[in-house]
């Protein structure tokens, strides 16, 4: 079977001279576009913003600084909820936390090609690596598999896995006898991948015991983000890779160029793809009409066989969903649980909601008001994905929620946006905006969700699929698995916080502003969140 997932697969013949001609032509086109951009009057000329810090990277080093948590707040304070910045080679970027603009952009505009193509390189033509009609066809097929009706059947499995982790911490790691300091993020990550493996593919890949005995697939998935971080510059150029020549040359470059992280990423993608193919081939040998096969892959294959010609997904797209679904949740969910646990440890008065009965079913669990409030507040204050990227695919005019002051000191109430304009949607700022959430917007206070929210929240109308929040995005590219993530987070918090007391250690914990916010300890490499755990 050809490898449709990693777009650097071998191609037996290629013409090096032709490749060089294509590359040279691409460079000429790029510079001509840059020149035209300089000559053409931009409709954003009056939008204020900070000067670029790099000739070719613009403000990107500030926007994507791993320690740059103060940057969004400083921009909002100085320029308002809309600011103009510069991206690669001087391209204009609108840096936005205005809720009206967020709504218009998320409901209408797609991610830029860089985002789609980078996901396509990692996981092929799955939900994250497709756009337009292809994405809509996949979404139509997958939507029923992530609704509450289908998800309810997994509630007991979610509890079983969370309870297995609880017992491992108690008995194998010795917390039953004495408090211990554990890297709790490591365990949340293992639990997340095991739950995804069971729910999405119907197979166990981690026994959740005291040894790191997970399947090589889950080990590879955990390694993707740390390996990808040094490749951020590489990611900017993904839309242009197709001009570098045939797939054989591109694959050879990935495995041969003396760049260890790039070489390792190629190895990880190969392993993830091979596991996806083997899982897919195994699914084709089972009775898919058997109701016991309710995992996403089995139900998807069954539905796909019965789909009309126009809705049917080709084999490579079905296979690509495995890596896509795993990748989408493998860092966001454990990082969110880690952050909420850390916040609760620092705010012990907020963790008095524990209920001794661990046998709640789906509807009962979802109805626990304080658990729900804790989750909403954690995702509001610390969204795992701090920023979203979109690109305008048409000229448009967007009204602002609140006016900003232009460079000429005039009041700006609408912005004119040209086709091709890039947006960075600052979820982090929108969910901490005091004019929306109140003067205590920077405080972790779950109680705010137990009484009516300020009218400004309804007026702002953030377009999130999860209440009026954006941790799972909004619009047609929102996270399809947000109900799955919500259930896992609630089950995990409910199970572990009913059994343990979590306390912060003396380690200086830092939260890195990566593509997904990750915890670490200052001066120590690696993703980790050490916490003192005691038996209740």
TrEMBL record:
Question: Which cofactors, if any, are listed as required?
Answer: heme
Q: Does the keyword Kinase apply?
A: no
InterPro entries per the UniProt record, alphabetical: Cyt_P450, Cyt_P450_E_grp-IV, Cyt_P450_sf, Cytochrome_P450_monoxygenase
Q: Which residues cross the membrane?
A: 12-35
Quote the record's binding site residues for heme.
479
Superkingdom of origin = Eukaryota
Q: A Pfam family for this UniProt protein? A: p450
Annotated GO molecular function terms are: heme binding; iron ion binding; monooxygenase activity; oxidoreductase activity, acting on paired donors, with incorporation or reduction of molecular oxygen
- Gene3D superfamilies linked: Cytochrome P450
Instruction: Give the UniProt entry's GO cellular component terms.
Output: membrane
Its pathway, per UniProt, is: Secondary metabolite biosynthesis; terpenoid biosynthesis
> Where found?
Membrane
SUPFAM superfamilies per the UniProt record, alphabetical: Cytochrome P450
Sorted UniProt keywords: Heme, Iron, Membrane, Metal-binding, Monooxygenase, Oxidoreductase, Transmembrane, Transmembrane helix
**Family according to the record:** Belongs to the cytochrome P450 family.
Q: Which PANTHER family match?
A: CYTOCHROME P450 (PTHR24305), CYTOCHROME P450 12A4, MITOCHONDRIAL-RELATED (PTHR24305:SF166)
The name on file for this protein is Cytochrome P450
């Amino acid at each position: 079977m050809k490898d449709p997932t990693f777009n650097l697969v071998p191609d037996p013949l290629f013409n090096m001279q032709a490749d060089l001609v294509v590359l040279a032509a691409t460079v000429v086109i790029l510079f001509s576009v840059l020149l035209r951009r300089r000559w053409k009057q931009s409709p954003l000329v009056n939008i204020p913003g900070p000067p670029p810090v790099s000739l070719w990277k613009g403000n990107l080093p500030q926007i994507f600084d791993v320690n740059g948590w103060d940057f969004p707040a400083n921009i909002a304070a100085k320029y308002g909820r809309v600011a103009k910045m510069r991206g690669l080679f001087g391209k204009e970027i609108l840096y936005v936390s205005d809720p009206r603009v967020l709504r218009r952009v998320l409901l209408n505009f797609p991610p830029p090609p860089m985002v789609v193509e980078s996901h396509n390189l990692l996981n092929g033509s799955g939900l994250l690596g497709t756009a337009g009609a292809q994405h809509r066809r996949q979404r139509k097929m997958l939507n029923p598999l992530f609704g509450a009706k289908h998800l309810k059947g997994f509630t007991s499995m979610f509890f079983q896995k969370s309870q297995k982790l609880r017992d491992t911490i108690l008995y194998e790691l010795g917390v039953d006898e004495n408090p211990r300091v554990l890297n709790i993020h490591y365990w949340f990550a293992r639990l997340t991948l095991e739950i995804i493996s069971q729910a999405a593919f119907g197979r166990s890949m981690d026994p959740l015991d005291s040894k790191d005995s997970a399947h090589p697939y889950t080990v590879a998935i955990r390694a993707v983000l740390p390996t990808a971080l040094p490749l951020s510059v590489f990611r900017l150029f993904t839309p242009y890779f197709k001009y570098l020549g045939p797939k054989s040359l591109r694959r050879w470059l990935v495995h041969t160029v003396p760049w260890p992280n790039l070489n390792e990423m190629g190895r990880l993608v190969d392993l993830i793809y091979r596991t996806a193919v083997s899982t897919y081939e195994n699914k084709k040998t089972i009775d898919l009409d058997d109701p016991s096969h309710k995992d996403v892959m089995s139900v998807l294959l069954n539905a796909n066989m019965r789909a009309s010609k126009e809705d049917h997904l080709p084999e490579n797209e079905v296979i690509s969903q495995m890596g896509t679904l795993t990748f989408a949740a493998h860092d966001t969910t454990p990082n969110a649980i880690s952050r909420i646990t850390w916040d609760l440890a620092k705010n012990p008065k907020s963790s008095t909601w524990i209920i001794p009965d661990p046998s709640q079913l789906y509807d009962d669990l979802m109805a626990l008001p304080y658990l729900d409030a804790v989750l909403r507040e954690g995702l509001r204050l610390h969204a795992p994905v701090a920023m979203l990227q979109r690109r305008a695919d048409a000229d448009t005019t967007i009204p602002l929620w609140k006016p900003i002051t232009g460079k000429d000191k005039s009041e700006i109430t609408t912005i004119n946006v040209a086709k091709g304009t890039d947006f960075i949607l600052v979820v982090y700022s929108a969910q901490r905006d005091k004019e929306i959430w109140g003067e205590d917007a920077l405080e972790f206070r779950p109680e705010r969700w137990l009484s009516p929210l300020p009218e400004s929240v309804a007026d702002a109308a953030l377009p999130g699929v999860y209440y009026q929040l954006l941790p799972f995005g909004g619009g047609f590219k929102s996270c399809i698995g947000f109900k799955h993530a919500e259930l896992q987070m609630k089950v995990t918090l409910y199970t572990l916080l009913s059994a343990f007391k979590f306390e912060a250690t003396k380690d200086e914990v830092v939260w890195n502003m990566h593509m997904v916010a990750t915890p670490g300890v200052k001066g120590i490499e690696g993703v980790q969140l050490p916490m003192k755990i005691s038996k209740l």
